[in-house]
Amino acid sequence: MTTTTPPATGSAHPWLVPLGLPAETEDSPPASPAEPEPVVPAEPAVPAGIDAPAQPVAPAKTGSPVESAPATGPGPGPDSGVRRRYIADILRLHSRLSFGGLAGRLHRTDSHVYRAAHGKGVITTAAPTEAIPERYLLGLAGFRLSEYLRAGYASEDIVFDNSLFCEPVQGIHQSDIHVITTDQETGRILGYVSLAHSEDHSPRPLDAPDRRLFPCEQAHNLRLLSLLPPSDGLTTHSVREVKRFVQAHSLTDRTLRLRVMLGLLAGISGILCQERHTTRMLIGDVEKHVALRHLVLLGLDVHLLDGTTPRLGLKELMHPMYVTREKVYPFLAHLPSPEETVRRSAVVQRAAAADAPFKAVRDLLSELSGSVQHIEVAA
Q: Which backbone phi and psi does 328 adopt, to 5 degrees?
């Protein structure tokens, strides 16, 4: 394996980051697990199955298309140019990665919790963290980081100062479920969303004072799950947080973007209706004109909370996402009965496989008819 250790910040070429490995084939032996140090990697690994060359690329010229991430640092300074080149190479790196072998590997080991090819060259796969080979997990964490850098939701300074090339994977729970929509021909990721598991080791009542807060609760400084009447048998392990719902920046075709969104929703609904999953409530935070529409398309009755002021500490990697985005609302959504969840999932699956995705969305809205109820939170 050929890797390159990123030089320390301030050295002659701190922007050099390791690129890919030769493409993986069906006959390739499984890669040996790496031992990464995700925050400050000594010998960082990247996912098997990558089509990129094994040598670092030259830094992009100022103003080239790859330097499209909004600035999230303090502005011009001695290291600003170096930082921008480092960020540009990370964006280029993750735009070249292919995950074509991941779905096949999960299928061969029966490790996926959802898999569907809805046609038009798009395939959606879902699996828990513990089932995803470490090298692929690093690539997924890199996709999450690169797309949030492009959107201005991640701190360039923190990425640069810590030599990050992906989100730190120690922040990803082993039971988190990753829903990935890829291009069947190239293996490139087109869309991604995760259903995050509670950090509680064992199930805790929602009103337990010592339970671990979900990330959105920490950001909004609010115990969201205490705002609704208690539900019989509902614990922290019955709740999932919807996180990192994102599509690849390279998707410019409206029809394909809609098809990818429907694929991700089909993955979520397909997971929730399975007997082995005990999720009974989804939480998170959304902008009204973006992810909220996705929840309504799932037919969910969403409780949207008004009156919070979310923020993260300046040392948090994702603190800009509560500065850059418009008004962000925390939400809670109870799932219906198991039988109704299965029925709704079948409707979403049909929409994802439809030849005309715009009509499919209109039909989905008329058939599932989710709702939004506002709850005012006292300041």
A: -115, 130
> Distance between CA atoms of 115 and 107, rounded to whole angstroms?
8
Nearest Cα neighbor of 140 from 243, 290, 240 is 243
The pTM score is: 0.79
Give the separation between CA 19 and CA 52, rounded to whole angstroms: 6
Contacts within 8 Å (CB) and 24+ apart, 213-218: 214/239, 214/241, 214/283, 215/241, 215/243, 216/241, 216/283, 216/284, 216/285, 216/330, 217/283, 217/330, 218/312
Give Cα separations from 274 to 194, 281, 352 (angstroms): 17, 14, 18
In the block, tokens 């829903």 appear at 179
Distance from C-alpha of 149 to C-alpha of 76, rounded to nearest angstrom: 18
The DSSP bridge partners found for residue 110 are none
**What are 349-365's pLDDT values in tens digits?**
999 999 999 999 999 98
> Which residues in 100-161 belong to E strands, given as ranges?
114-119, 122-128
Element (DSSP H or E) covering residue 239: strand 239-247
Are 165 and 90 spatial neighbours (Cβ–Cβ below 8 Å)? yes
Contact 178, 132 (CB under 8 A): yes
Beta bridge partners of 122: 119, 183
Q: Is the pLDDT of residue 21 over 60?
A: no
